[in-house]
């Protein structure tokens, strides 16, 4: 899976994007999402409203784009010694972040995008994180992850429960990881 | 799990709800969702705008409420002879309905509701359908379903893939059901 980015780094286009994203971030600290308008964002970013309309089309698409950027993980998954413990630590953090008020609002913004391209970018970030855990496992001499199976067995239930039911607790995350990697991953020497 | 309904059947309140829902349904046949406004809906439904504001608060909440009603399954799951084949038939239909353009738009409307109550009602409908399959299995003398596990193993991956990736095909639905009910449910006499 390839994570498509809308704009290449560097150049005028990237500077405009960074400036508009920063303006949205700053304004969301000060005002309610419902009060945001494209002219207000444009003024803050130092660009014309038509620049924003040309690139993003509408406010929903812009907010969705900003939300995806925020959903991008800041770092590699923590190295805790085994694939299973890495996956467990990752799943607990994912459940916690996505079920926070900010996380839910971001997911809603991403979902509200009519193109669905942003939703795929989100899933792409998740895929990359799981692939990193898998690559590290193989480098240790462990079996790698079946990333597609982990999406179905761990990621999907966490997201479904956050969106439609209630956030899963740590015990539930643990049970999901145990189901995905049964019996695997005692720490070496443990 | 209890599916909470906003209004009891019968009475003036239920008639207003039915009339407003019917107005939204009819208007959505004629115009784009983006053009809908509460005054337009009120006129069509023969109520005052303030009646709608009082009950639903805003347009997003009303559209979400209508979407949940549409997501309510029309019938019991088909009886195909075994719990496993019932679950497979149900999962295929669920994936097909939810990944249609109408289905995705409905999910987005439900998700856009700030209260999240509607999302829980949706999941409640799903839970009821799975429970019906389980009850029927027990009546046949088969093992019932672990409905919570089926939510995690079958429903969640279907919904996650529709929302964030790509709709699962029939083979994928089959693999999810096989994982949830391994080896179970050859048709009797088959």
Automatic annotation (TrEMBL), chains A, B:
Organism: Roseococcus pinisoli
DNA-binding region, residues: 37-56
Signal sequence annotation: none
Keywords from the UniProt entry: DNA-binding, Transcription, Transcription regulation
A Pfam short name: TetR_C_11
Superkingdom to which the source organism belongs: Bacteria
Domain HTH tetR-type intervals: 14-74
Keyword Lyase annotated: no
Protein name as annotated: TetR/AcrR family transcriptional regulator C-terminal ligand-binding domain-containing protein
Keyword Transcription regulation: yes
Listed PROSITE patterns: HTH_TETR_2 (PS50977)
């Amino acid at each position: 899976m390839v994570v498509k980015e809308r704009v290449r780094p560097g150049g005028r286009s990237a500077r405009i994007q960074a400036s508009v994203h920063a303006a949205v971030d700053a304004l969301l600290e000060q005002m309610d999402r419902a009060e945001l308008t494209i002219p207000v964002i444009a003024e803050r970013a130092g660009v014309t409203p038509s620049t924003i309309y040309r690139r993003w089309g509408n406010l929903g698409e812009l907010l969705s784009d900003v939300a995806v950027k925020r959903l991008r993980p800041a770092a590699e998954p923590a190295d805790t010694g085994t694939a299973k413990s890495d996956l467990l630590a990752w799943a607990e953090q994912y459940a916690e972040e996505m079920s926070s008020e900010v996380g839910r609002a971001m997911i809603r913004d991403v979902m509200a995008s009519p193109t669905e391209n942003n939703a795929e970018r989100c899933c792409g970030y998740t895929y990359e994180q799981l692939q990193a855990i898998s690559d590290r496992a193989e480098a240790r001499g462990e079996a790698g992850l079946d990333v597609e199976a982990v999406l179905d067995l761990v990621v999907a239930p966490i997201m479904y429960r956050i969106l439609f039911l209630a956030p899963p607790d740590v015990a539930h995350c643990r049970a999901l990881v145990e189901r995905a990697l049964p019996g695997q991953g005692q720490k070496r020497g443990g």
